[in-house]
Design a protein that fits this description.
The structure holds three protein chains of three kinds.
Chain A lengths: L2 H9 L8 H12 L4 H11 L3 H10 L11 E6 L2 H5 L2 H12 L12 E6 L11 E3 L2 E3 L7 H22 L1
Parallel strand pairs in A: 1-2
Antiparallel strand pairs in A: 1-3, 3-4
Helix pairs in contact in A: 1-3, 3-4
Chain B lengths: L5 H15 L9 E6 L2 H6 L1 H14 L5 E6 L11 E5 L5 E3 L4 H13 L8 E4 L7
Chain C lengths: L11 E6 L2 H5 L2 H14 L6 E6 L11 E4 L3 E3 L7 H10 L25 H4 L17 H6 L4 H9 L2 H11 L11 H10 L9 E6 L8 H8 L1 H15 L3 E7 L3 H16 L15 E7 L8 H8 L23 E5 H13 L1 H5 L9 E8 L5 E6 L4 H8 L9 E6 L5 E4 L9 H6 L8 E6 L4 H15 L5 H18 L5 H17 L3 H5 L2 H9 L1 H10 L13 E3 L1 H7 L5 H5 L5 E2 L7 E2 L9 H5 L5 E3 L1
Parallel strand pairs in C: 1-2, 5-6, 5-8, 6-7, 9-13
Antiparallel strand pairs in C: 1-3, 3-4, 9-10, 11-12, 11-13, 14-17, 15-16
Helix pairs in contact in C: 2-3, 6-10, 6-13, 7-8, 7-10, 9-10, 9-11, 10-13, 17-18, 17-21, 18-19, 19-21
The chains are: A alpha+beta, B alpha+beta, C alpha/beta.
């Protein structure tokens, strides 16, 4: 957490209260979550009661008070995805990662969340891992998809070892 | 003073219409097809195409569709092109050069007069399926 | 006087679809491969590559349309590109094997407009889709863009504009279907408490799961929305507009930012637009992921930087909206319809559609349907035409059961009503609603109780919690529905569900709560026998409610056809399958968690579900 980063974001906006949601969005985007210190700083510098900042940070789905995994996984549970079996895919991911929806793996590699419609209904069911979109996914395809990211990690570790 | 006047807006519209007109269902007065089979390309069809594109752009010619198709089946007389003026029978031109092509564009496509000395014949083969 | 430079002409334009679905299907890699190959063949002076917004036929992506000729290539891979470039663009021979073949047919259809999916569509809001690069303002202008705005700003009075919109019969495309011209009239007549300040808002908070038309319009043709808004601003005398767009739509946001910058650059936004003396500008506000913010009062709260909670109406935003000033809110699709109406006249527009519903509507056709995608059709078209002619029917020869319209506020229309002509009234008579245009097709494998439970869990999750009927009532309904899908429901539950539904409809504060019971009421009306099967027989006829399923393996098929392939055992989540290769496999029911993975992976149909 770096207070200057937050100050930079604050400087991009006028200090009137209507900018607060945009400011929180930018912090969320830059840091991946809203750390406690950031919320305190926003409240202080914008002169908005902490209770109000916190109520906004907990009301909107876009904000998270906890850090997410290195590879955030979003399972679309829109209607089109639902009727094409998204729930089964979500449960398969829960089993494979050994976490529940809304949680992050212990090694901080993956976090798993549900979203209501990413607007790719033509490709239902859809799972997003980071920026990558996986359309027409099924339970059976889940392990193969996760493997790509797990292998990426193993490779990094191996590289790190050979460097030392 | 506004940044853009009504006239400026119209000018942008006309200019871009010209470069994008082949996307819609615009009507073309004439169509030129350059035959681009392997034989045609070997005989220099790409030069013919380039010459046509250059001329069309230089003279700001509109309402003409320039396209390509496969081998016309008369490989010994390549490079070839076909000119189709709306409502008239297509005319095939053979053994072309850049200069001949420009002449055809000038006299036939724009002027409406068939350049008989380069023409192979008028019309197409029959297709009955 | 702006400087206008001449542009280079090309003989072939390759329109690469860069809508969200095609981008997810790697259309940018296709574009790169095209660029490389075209350079390699030395065609870069002859062939132009254009990235367009969503073409609509998302099912077949990534897509490429070749102009002139309107040749439609689909499901492309980078491996196809060298051959395609050489054959079609160099040698002039279109490549048949990359063309679309309708389900259960053999002959490919080369030309886009001959394909059934496109044939019956009438494009007004989506008039420029696939034909322009959304990031090039000049291309929008070439397709008569900003012509209506020029007309409205220089030769029409505000009341001329309002009356033209009123006469067109256009109704709000965001859900409610309120007559647009009338709304404009209200805002125009309203007196502002703050001098003469009035605001104008574009609602692009498309939260309805299963609908993506607003996203597609913003991605494919952002200027059409901007032009509509400027015309609206003149009609009500506003100088500041807001476009509220979901933050989950990064591509739509980027294209809208770019479009606003380009429009400002040309002076089509800002001070003294086109020398007319009118000032107007638009600011983007990014939504922060709350379905309730699609509700207009909640949306306005959130623009003001407050919690997205709805307020009781009246007063309507037309009287007291943003910061207490009269505010005109229309949805993205409504705004995209304005310029064509002003250009071609109310008479032309009102010619299309039915008695009460004029013009066209964009639907996202998704779910259990062959041709998923985005379609724009004239009002009055029947469901049958949409599902079978445009949509190409149900995949895998399954039977059509119902179509859900209107999202969480709408309902399910059963197959008996397949000849229903689509307009605002016929849909609400059938117990559903137009909504924003999501159309989710369901087949015999979709459980209607589960669908009702799904929507209730959605509204429950998105309920802002401000009023009790919505907060507690939807929770109570969800609990009952969950019980029923687990086989623990009783006959009394059905009566209770109905009572709760009626009282929530009557007493909730905003549209979200008032319409939340609709999916339950319509499924109970048309599919009561499915509810009864869950309650009385403890069975889910569609085998969707897993707690009621029993999975077994047909040992004959398993060993004789599948040679005990062992795939099910290796995939089983709970070690509930016994067996080894070449031997019949068995499911231990006590251990089975009913995840259904064995059923999915079995290639021989040996796993049975009952």
């Amino acid at each position: 957490m770096n207070p200057e980063k937050i100050s930079q974001i604050l400087a991009n906006y006028e200090t009137d209260q209507s900018s607060i949601i945009s400011i929180l969005q930018d912090i969320q985007e830059a840091l991946g979550y809203l750390p406690k210190e950031a919320i305190l700083q926003v409240s202080r510098e914008m002169n908005i009661p902490l209770s109000r900042v916190l109520s906004l940070a907990t009301f909107f789905n876009a904000f998270s008070l906890e850090p997410k995994g290195k590879h955030p996984i979003h399972v679309c549970l829109g209607t089109a995805c639902h009727v094409r079996g998204a729930q089964l895919v979500l449960e398969k991911l829960e089993r494979e990662l050994n976490i529940k929806s809304g949680e992050t793996t212990e090694d901080k590699e993956f976090s798993l969340d549900e979203v209501h419609c990413v607007g790719c209904c033509g490709l239902a069911p859809v799972v997003m891992i980071g920026e990558d979109v996986y359309g027409k996914i099924s339970q059976a395809k889940v392990p193969g998809v996760l493997k790509k990211y797990k292998e990426g990690r193993r490779k990094e570790e191996k590289d790190a070892k050979t460097h030392t | 003073m506004p940044k853009l006047t009504l006239e400026d807006l119209e000018e942008i519209r006309e200019k871009t219409k010209k470069t994008t007109m082949l996307r819609g269902d615009s009507e073309f007065r004439a169509k030129i097809t350059v035959h681009m089979g392997t034989c045609g390309i070997a005989a220099g069809a790409r030069g013919i195409m380039a010459a046509l594109m250059e001329e069309i752009e230089a003279q700001d010619i509109t309402e003409i569709l320039l396209t390509n198709s496969g081998c016309a089946g008369l490989c010994s007389k390549e490079p070839m092109l076909t000119v189709e003026i709306k409502g008239q029978a297509p005319v095939k031109y053979v053994e072309l050069t850049g200069a001949k092509t420009k002449e055809i564009l000038e006299k036939h496509v724009l002027g409406g007069k068939i350049v008989e000395k380069y023409a192979l014949g008028i019309g197409s083969e029959k297709t009955d399926y | 006087m702006a400087k206008i430079k001449k542009e280079k002409e090309y003989r072939v334009h390759l329109m690469v679809c860069a809508g969200t679905a095609c981008v997810s299907n790697h259309s940018f890699e296709i574009k790169e491969a095209l660029e490389t190959e075209i350079k390699k063949q030395d065609l870069d002076n002859e062939v132009l590559i254009v990235t367009t917004g969503c073409n609509g036929f998302c099912e077949r992506g990534p897509l490429l349309v070749v102009q002139p000729g309107n040749i439609f290539y689909q499901t492309l891979t980078t491996k196809d590109i060298p051959h395609l470039v050489e054959e079609h663009f160099l040698k002039g021979r279109p490549v048949e094997k990359l063309m679309y073949i309708p389900p259960e047919e053999k002959t490919p259809i080369p030309v886009l407009s001959d394909i059934d999916f496109f044939k019956k569509q009438v494009l007004i809001a989506l008039r420029n889709r696939g034909l322009i690069d959304p990031e090039k303002i000049d291309e929008y202008i070439a397709r008569d863009g900003y012509k209506a705005m020029a007309k409205a700003l220089t030769s029409m009075s505000p009341s001329d504009i309002r009356s033209e919109i009123q006469k067109s019969g256009l109704r709000g495309r965001g859900g409610g279907g309120f007559p647009t011209g009338l709304k404009w009239e209200f805002v125009s007549n309203a007196v502002s408490s703050n001098g003469n300040v009035k605001y104008l808002v574009c609602n692009g908070d498309e939260g309805d799961p299963g609908a993506f038309m607003d996203r597609s319009i913003l991605e494919a043709d952002p200027h059409s929305v901007i032009e509509g808004m400027v015309i609206g601003a003149k009609a009500i005398n506003a100088t500041q507009g807001y476009a509220y767009v979901r933050n989950e739509y990064p591509l739509a946001l980027n294209r809208l930012y770019k479009a606003l910058d380009d429009a400002r650059e040309y002076g089509l936004l800002g001070k003294n637009i086109l020398g007319s003396g009118m000032d107007f500008d638009i600011k983007i506000v990014r939504g922060a992921g709350a379905f309730i913010c699609g509700e207009e009062t909640a949306l306005l709260s959130s623009i003001e930087g407050r919690l997205g909670e709805p307020k009781p109406r009246p007063p309507y935003p037309a009287e007291k909206g943003l910061w207490g000033c009269p505010t005109l809110i229309n949805n993205v699709e409504t705004w995209a319809n304005i310029a064509p109406i002003i250009n071609r006249g109310a008479k032309w527009y009102s010619h299309i559609g039915t008695e009460t519903s004029k013009g066209t509507k964009v639907f996202s056709l998704v779910g259990k349907i062959n041709n998923t995608g985005l379609v724009e059709v004239p009002m009055g078209i029947t469901l049958r035409e949409i599902i079978y002619d445009i949509g190409g029917g149900i995949p895998g020869g399954r039977e059509f059961k119902a179509v859900q319209t209107g999202g969480p506020s709408g309902g399910c229309i059963p197959k008996e009503k397949i000849d229903l002509p689509i307009d605002y009234e016929s849909l609400s008579d059938a117990g559903s609603m137009m909504g924003s245009g999501g159309m989710v097709v369901m087949d015999e494998d979709t459980c209607m109780v589960d669908v009702a439970r799904y929507f209730l869990s959605f509204t429950q999750d998105e309920s802002c919690g401000k009023c009790t009927p919505c907060r507690e009532g939807t929770k109570a309904m969800l609990d009952i529905l969950t019980r029923i899908t687990k086989g623990e429901g009783t006959d009394e539950d059905l009566t209770l569900l109905e009572e709760l539904a009626v009282s929530i409809k009557d007493s909730a504060l905003c549209g979200l709560g008032k319409t939340a019971p609709n999916p339950v009421l319509t499924t109970m009306k048309y599919f009561r026998s499915e509810y009864e099967a869950h309650i009385r027989d403890k069975k889910c006829p569609a085998h969707t409610c897993r707690d009621l399923n029993v999975y077994t393996i047909d040992e004959d098929i398993c060993v004789n056809t599948g040679h005990g392939c062992d795939l099910c055992r290796r995939n089983c989540a709970s070690d509930a399958i016994l067996g080894e290769r070449n031997q019949p496999h068995q499911i231990i029911q006590d251990k089975c968690t009913k995840c259904g993975v064995c059923y999915d992976v079995c290639k021989f149909g040996a796993v049975k579900v009952d």
